[in-house]
Amino acid sequence: MDVTVTITVNGVTKRITTDPDRSILDALREDLRETGSGLRCGEGRCGGCVVLLDGKRVLSCDIPIAKADQRAITTIES
After folding, report:
1. What is the distance in angstroms between the CA of the first residue and the CA of the last residue of the chain?
2. Are the beta carbons of 62 and 51 closer than 8 angstroms?
3. Are 65 and 18 in contact (CB under 8 A)?
4. CA-to-CA distance for 70 and 67, rounded, in angstroms?
5. Could you tell me which residues come within 8 angstroms of residue 12 by beta carbon, excluding any fewer than 6 positions away?
6. What is the pLDDT of residue 43?
7. Alpha carbon of 17 to those of 20, 21, 42, 46, 54: distances in Å?
8. Quick one: which H or E segment has residue 25?
9. For the residues 7-27, what does the mean pLDDT come to?
10. What is the pLDDT of residues 24-67, one digit of tens each?
């Protein structure tokens, strides 16, 4: 069952409806066209997918988008 998630990406509030278990990385790249962070290893080891989540460095391929609801994400594009 899809959920609607509200996130602030690089200072702009966005709303997407998606699978809650989908990664932050997938939602950023596929739904919001924020392509600076990339999928490299897909296991959260290489750091190619790093974003800031409420100012804290996280590996976006490892975190479900539902955990980012009502939070701020900063990508390399910022």
Report:
1. 31
2. no
3. yes
4. 9
5. none
6. 65
7. 9, 12, 23, 28, 21
8. helix 24-26
9. 96
10. 999 999 999 988 877 666 666 678 889 999 999 999 999 999 99
* Statement: the pTM of the whole predicted model exceeds 0.85: yes
Which position has the token pair 């609801």? 69
Residue that the structure tokens 């750091």 belong to: 47
27, two tokens:
């939602």
Can you tell me which residue has the tokens 């998606």? 18
The Cα–Cα gap between 75 and 25 comes to: 10
Spatial separation of the C-alpha atoms in residues 31 and 5, rounded to whole Å: 12
Tokens of 39: 């999928």
